[in-house]
Amino acid sequence: VSRRPVLILFDLDGCLVDSTEAITSCLNHALGELGLAPRPIDELRRFVGPPLVEAFETLLVEAGAPEDWAATGVAAYRARYADVSLERTRVVDGVPAALDALGAFASLRVVTSKPRAFALPIVAHLGLADRFDDVHGPQITLHTEAKAHTLARALAAAAVPASAAVMVGDRRHDVEAGRVNGTATIGVTWGAGDRDELVSAGADHLADRPADLVALLGG
Ligand SMILES: [Mg+2]
């Protein structure tokens, strides 16, 4: 990773914020609306980050229910998530200080697969909005765009070449999106993805705490 990149792109869930409680409680709420049993939180952590419709497709198959209930599950989830996401999402310790240090020399943007309409109020509610030039996320549709697509839109909006940008995230989707677009990539190990997932996805570096990002990229 080059020191002092011009642009640093951050995944939201699991990277900047801990949204495990909000996301897993809404998944269980939606399963209940579908007449299905709730699942233990530990079995739901894998769904923090990837597109929601894929989570429901997997959960429905695992429950022996029709996969085409996924759209109903997504709708039930989103109706609930709009209410609980603001109270049950917290900033990861050390992130605000790291953003302050990195924002002193780089443009910072959020690149999330959460619909932008949900991501914006969370970023604002947690007091992070001033640190970012923009928040990039898909429209609210059932099948969300690939993360590589959202990242490409962020690069275009910033008018920065991929070689001067770094993608930071906690799941393989984040690393893969960075690699597809030609950015450097940093996998963070404090989120939902573990070291093996991030290394096998091809992350250039790993960070175990937010301060490591400052050490890697230059404070
Ligand atoms: Mg994530």
What does this entry show, briefly?
46% of the residues lie in helices and 13% in strands. It has 219 residues and is α/β, with parallel strands linked by helices. The strands form two sheets. A six-stranded parallel β-sheet has the order 5-4-1-6-7-8, with helices on both faces. It has a two-stranded antiparallel sheet with strand order 2-3.
Show unreliable segments. none
Strand/helix succession: EEHHHHEHEHEHEHEHEH
Radius of gyration (CA) equals: 17 Å
What's the mean pLDDT score?
Answer: 95
Task: Lay out the secondary structure.
Elements: E1 7-10, E2 17-18, H1 20-33, H2 41-44, H3 52-62, H4 70-84, E3 90-91, H5 95-103, E4 107-111, H6 116-125, E5 134-136, H7 147-158, E6 165-169, H8 172-181, E7 184-188, H9 195-201, E8 205-207, H10 210-217
Parallel strand pairs: 1-4, 1-6, 4-5, 6-7, 7-8
Antiparallel strand pairs: 2-3
Helix pairs in contact: 1-4, 3-4, 5-10, 7-8, 8-9
The structure holds magnesium ion (MG).
